[in-house]
């Protein structure tokens, strides 16, 4: 992989292992609505497309916002409860993946000129708070969430905005091959591909099978591999 100048990271399943807190929040929402809980493995398979889609899938919707099987008032109530519960419990069990901080520190110390940012479909408020409390914030010049734009990944808007902001900080504009989108799902690969940039898949995350099927340009099984695979 060509040596990059800009790295864009997904959050859940890439930088942090947040699966248990998300699953607990979904099941708390289901209990609030008088519905039976779902297995954690099932809920984990619903993560990646933002809070609203996570809630809809947990309620049994087909994943199509135009084909909802639930009254919208029920969906709104469910989403509001989920977000309220998650804000309180988002760090009960969530941790930074092993190797992430070491790799970020290595990249920063060896190549201080490389820019890094976060682009997640999680709402930006929890994303900022989690990165702040888990020591990730200093590495990133920007952190955008699923409610930062009218669209979410894999729509290119968020990544395009980050590229424009990175270019404003650099003397020489970025070339596509100098940008890498790093994530654990097919959504991240499709996001990178939609902007014509390189992609790095993290097989330790939430959706390894969908990730493999999306065929990222490079692949790792542990965050400690990032510097070597990126040529850093």
UniProtKB/TrEMBL annotation:
Its EC number is 3.1.3.18. One of its GO terms (molecular function) is phosphoglycolate phosphatase activity. Pathway: Organic acid metabolism; glycolate biosynthesis; glycolate from 2-phosphoglycolate: step 1/1. SUPFAM superfamilies: HAD-like. It holds the Pfam family HAD_2. It comes from the Bacteria. Signal peptide: none annotated. It is an enzyme of class 3 (hydrolase). It catalyses: 2-phosphoglycolate + H2O = glycolate + phosphate. Keywords: Hydrolase. One of its GO terms (cellular component) is cytosol. GO terms for biological process: DNA repair. PANTHER family: PHOSPHOGLYCOLATE PHOSPHATASE (PTHR43434). Belongs to the HAD-like hydrolase superfamily. CbbY/CbbZ/Gph/YieH family. This is phosphoglycolate phosphatase. It comes from Granulicella mallensis (strain ATCC BAA-1857 / DSM 23137 / MP5ACTX8). The lineage of its organism: Bacteria, Pseudomonadati, Acidobacteriota, Terriglobia, Terriglobales.
């Amino acid at each position: 992989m060509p040596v990059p100048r800009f790295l864009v990271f997904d959050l859940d399943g890439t930088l942090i292992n947040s699966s248990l807190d998300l699953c607990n929040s979904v099941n708390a929402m289901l209990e609030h609505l008088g519905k039976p809980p779902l297995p954690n493995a099932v809920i984990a398979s619903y993560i990646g497309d933002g809070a609203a889609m996570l809630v809809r899938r947990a309620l049994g919707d087909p994943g199509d916002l135009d084909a909802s099987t639930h009254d919208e008032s029920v969906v709104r109530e469910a989403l509001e409860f989920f977000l309220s519960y998650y804000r309180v419990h988002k760090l009960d069990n969530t941790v930074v993946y092993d190797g992430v901080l070491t790799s970020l520190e290595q990249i920063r110390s060896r190549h201080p000129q490389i820019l890094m940012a976060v682009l997640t479909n999680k709402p930006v408020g929890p994303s900022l708070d989690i990165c702040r409390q888990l020591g990730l914030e200093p590495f990133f010049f920007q952190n955008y969430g699923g409610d930062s734009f009218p669209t979410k990944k894999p729509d290119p808007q968020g990544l395009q905005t980050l590229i424009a902001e990175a270019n404003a900080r650099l003397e020489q504009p970025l070339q596509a091959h100098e940008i890498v989108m790093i994530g654990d799902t097919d959504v991240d690969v499709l996001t990178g591909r939609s902007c014509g940039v390189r992609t790095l898949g993290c097989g330790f995350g939430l959706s390894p099978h969908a990730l493999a099927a999306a065929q990222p340009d490079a692949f790792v099984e542990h965050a400690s591999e990032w510097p070597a695979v990126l040529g850093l």
